[in-house]
Every structure is written in C-alpha cells, then in structure tokens.
C-alpha cells in the first residue's frame, strides 16, 4: 500500500481525510488539446481499500452519473477508511455527444485492458485501466439499459468470484445476475486483473431516474459499509434473487406491442407478456413467458419487427419461487417504489381473452 498520510493521485498530493477534484488526461482532441475526465479522490482518515465508482462508460447512460453526483453533492461524504475514486463520466467523448459509443463508433466497454499502441479507443482504455483500475482494490461500474429499453435495477457479476459475489450481494439491488461479461468488458478485465468489479444496470439512457438513483446511491454506500470503509451495516432487502439464466423474449411478427408486464414483475411459465397486433388492432400473436421468471428488462418502444427483443426474463426455479420473489419484492420499500416508478413509463394492459 502507498504511504497513507499523503498520496499522489492523478498528479496531485491528497492528504488523508481530505478530498480533491482532479482530472485524468485520456487523449488529445483534433486541435491538440488535452481531453480529460473529471475525478474526485476522497480519502479516509484511516487506511483501507481503494474503490472506484464509475458512471457513463457508455456515454448516454446517466443514472450512474446522477447517483455519483448526488453523493458528491455533500462535501462531507466519503469513507472513514480507505479511498474512493468517484468518476461520474468515464466515456467523456461519448458523453459530449449523448452517445453510447466513442466518436470512432467503438464501444469503450469492449476495449479493456487496452493497448498503448492500438486504436484511439484501446489507448484510452489503457490509460483508464492503468490509472484507475490497477490502483484500486474493488470497483463498481454503473450502467443503464441500452437505448429504447429499460432495466429493473440489477447487479451483474461472476458468481465464481467470491469477492465479486460479496460486493454484488452487499450492493442490495435485490436482483443479482451471474456472468463475467464479454471479453474486453471493463468489469471482466478489471476482475481478471485482480480488482473485483461489479456492474449495476438500472433504468434508461439519457435520464436520471429518481428511484434508480436511490437504489444506486444506497448500493454504493452499502458496498463501502460491507468493506468496513464506512460505519454501519448495509441496508439490504430481506431477500435477493440470484439469477443464473436469462432470456430475451423476442417479437415473432412486425407490429405494435401491448405490454402485460412491467420491470420487476414476476411471471409463471405460459403467462402472457405482451400482445402483438397490427396498427388497426388485428391480433398477430401473443408472447408468453417461456419459464417462471422475473422481468429484468424490457423494450420501451412498442413498435417491433420480427426478432426484436421485447422482454428480458430472469429464470426462477418454480411458480412457488416466483410467488416468493414477488412477495419479497413488494415487501422492500425501495424495490416496490422502483417497480412503480419504472412502470409509469409503460402502458400495461390486461391481456384480452
Ligand atoms: Zn452500459
């Protein structure tokens, strides 16, 4: 560990028990100016781990940015033990254009751990990886669903990695998904490099949604408590669902979808999820749940073509289990409120006989 009293972060000395707003140079613009990402380094009085918290790795996914900014709005906020590196916008070039991608159309979240002599994207990834990930002990990466979709807040991590699973459970979103992520993804490569990292997905692009923000800020604080960086116990839902298998239920026909479920709904196998009909309301077909499950994501755009994803379902083991999960989701204030908020964006109707 670096000497605790004074540490150098991104070229500045930061004393224990203080914070400093700083910047990391990641590339240069066409006009040769430095392009930097803003970072707040928050240092605890006492030694402890270093945790990075990042938002907008996809430049249009702003719920995490909103959550981090809301924590930073209180200048007193931070760990008692250890360091927090708060990065509200990781993909600053995408963010400047309200875009998921970099200007060269690459997905920064497939370019890690990066390459110092590679493409613009992999060079940027390399700078970020070396300066942030390799200096941290743990990571939390905040995302939303992709454009035209929404996600019921869920944490994703590799269940085989005990440290990741511990963070994911401590975050307390209520739904945890197994998987290490695709090759080149930030959290996968960070975890592989010895910095266990979880990813959190919640809500939509281009928004800061109050209930998602609430879930994310509580989750970050929960993880810091779990790591003994802050005092107190994590505030957790009574029960959390661990999902190992998920499936996108896709449209079979072109048409307009009437939705019968909303984010966070639990369903049993065969239950109608959405009805696809023509614009003048001639029914085409009905999408049904292929298994007992919970809706972790869905399309917000009701017009579909064949093959387009409509409902993202996490698999539960039985109808009894679905009932149990529903009961506990409804019993947790935050999960119930989130479900209510997210469903106000979607017209949900009863299926017609
Ligand atoms: Zn994302």
From TrEMBL:
Highest taxon in the source lineage: Bacteria
Required cofactor(s): Zn(2+)
Keyword Hydrolase: yes
Pfam families linked to this entry: AstE_AspA_cat (PF24827)
UniProt keywords, alphabetically: Hydrolase, Metal-binding, Zinc
Gene3D superfamilies: Zn peptidases
The keyword Hydrolase is annotated on this UniProt entry: yes
Name under which the protein is recorded: Succinylglutamate desuccinylase/aspartoacylase family protein
Organism whose genome encodes this protein: Aporhodopirellula aestuarii
């Amino acid at each position: 560990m670096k000497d605790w009293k004074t540490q150098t972060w991104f070229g500045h000395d930061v004393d224990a028990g203080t914070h400093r707003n700083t910047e990391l140079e990641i590339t240069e613009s066409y006009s040769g100016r430095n392009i930097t990402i803003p970072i707040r380094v928050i240092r605890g009085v006492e030694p402890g781990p270093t945790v990075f918290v990042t938002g907008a790795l996809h430049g249009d996914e702003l719920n995490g940015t909103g959550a981090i900014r809301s924590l930073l709005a209180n200048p007193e906020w931070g760990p008692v033990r250890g360091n927090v590196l708060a990065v509200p916008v990781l993909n600053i070039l995408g963010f400047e254009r309200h875009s998921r991608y970099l200007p060269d159309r690459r997905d920064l979240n497939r370019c890690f751990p990066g390459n110092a002599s590679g493409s613009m994207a992999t060079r940027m990834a390399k700078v970020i990886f070396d300066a942030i990930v390799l200096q941290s002990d743990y990571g939390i990466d905040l995302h939303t669903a992709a454009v035209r979709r929404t996600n019921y807040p869920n944490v994703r991590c590799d269940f085989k990695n005990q440290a990741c699973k511990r963070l994911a459970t401590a975050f307390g979103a209520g739904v945890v998904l197994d998987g290490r992520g695709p090759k080149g993804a930030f959290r996968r490569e960070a975890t592989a490099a010895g910095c266990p990292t979880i990813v959190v997905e919640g809500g939509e692009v281009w928004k800061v949604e109050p209930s998602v923000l609430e879930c994310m800020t509580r989750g970050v604080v929960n993880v810091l408590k779990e790591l003994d960086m802050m005092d107190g116990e994590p505030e957790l839902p009574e029960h959390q669902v661990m999902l190992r298998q998920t499936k996108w239920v896709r449209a079979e026909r072109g048409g307009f979808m009437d939705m019968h479920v909303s984010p966070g709904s639990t369903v049993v196998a065969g239950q109608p999820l959405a009805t696809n009909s023509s614009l003048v309301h001639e029914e085409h077909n009905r999408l049904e749940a292929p298994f007992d499950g919970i809706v972790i994501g869905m399309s917000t755009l009701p017009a579909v073509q064949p093959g387009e994803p409509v409902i993202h379902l996490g698999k539960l083991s039985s109808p009894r289990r679905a009932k149990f999960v529903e009961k506990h989701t409804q019993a947790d204030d935050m999960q119930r409120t989130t479900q209510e908020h997210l469903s106000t964006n979607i017209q949900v109707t009863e299926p017609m006989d």
